[in-house]
Amino acid sequence: MKNIGRNEPCPCGSGKKYKKCCLHASQPTDGGMLVYTDLDELSNQVPHLIEQGKYKEAEAVCQQLIEQYPEQIDGLHRYAEFFETKGDSLKAAEYYHKTAAFAEQAGGFGEESMAFFKKKALELAGGNEG
Predict the structure, then answer these.
(1) Closest CA to 62 of 74, 53, 72, 54
(2) Distance in angstroms (rounded) separating the CA atoms of residues 79 and 63
(3) What per-residue string of b and e applies to 97-121 under the rule 16 or more CB within 10 Å gives b?
(4) CB atoms within 10 A of CB 90
(5) Beta carbons within 8 Å of 35's beta carbon, 6+ residues apart
(6) Mind spelling out the 3-state secondary structure of the chain?
(7) pTM for the structure as a whole
(8) pLDDT tens per residue across span 30-52
(9) Rounded to an integer, what distance in angstroms lies between the CA atom of residue 77 and that of residue 103?
(10) pLDDT above 90 for 97
C-alpha cells in the first residue's frame, strides 16, 4: 500500500487534508482533540500571521520551516502562499515550482497535489508576462 502524504486529500473521503483528518486517528489525543506535531503547529502559524498582516513574522516562520524541516514540503509551500498573498507573483510561481519539484522527488504525493502546484506556478508566472 502506498504511503499517503500529509498534504494529500484524506482517503476517507472527508475532503480534508490527510494531516487534518485521519493521520492522527491512531495517535494519542488530549481530551478528544487531535495532537498536532511541532511541524503542523509551526506550519499553521503562517496563514494566521498573514491574515493578521504580520508579514515579517510569517516570512520568518517560512524560513524556520525550511531550516528546521528541510525534508518536508511545508516551508516551500508556505513560502509560495506567502508570496502569492503579498502579490509577488514571480516569487510565488518560483516557490510553487519548487514545491511541485519537491513533491515529485519525494514521492508520496498524489497527482492532484502535484498538478495543483504546477498549475499555480504556471498561472502566477504567466500573470507577469508582458
Answers:
(1) 74
(2) 8
(3) bbbbebbeeeeebbeebbebbbebb
(4) 12
(5) 24, 27, 28, 29
(6) CCCCCCCCECCCCCCCEHHHCCCCCCCCCECCECCCCHHHHHHHHHHHHHHCCCHHHHHHHHHHHHHHCCCCCHHHHHHHHHHHHHCCHHHHHHHHHHHHHHHHHHCCCCHHHHHHHHHHHHHHHHCCCC
(7) 0.72
(8) 555 555 688 988 999 999 999 99
(9) 10
(10) yes
C-alpha cell at 34: 487531535
Quickly tell me which residue has 491574515 as its cell.
Answer: 51
Q: Which three cell numbers stand for residue 59?
A: 516570512
Whole-number CA gyration radius for the chain: 15
Map grid coordinates 504556471 to a residue: 122
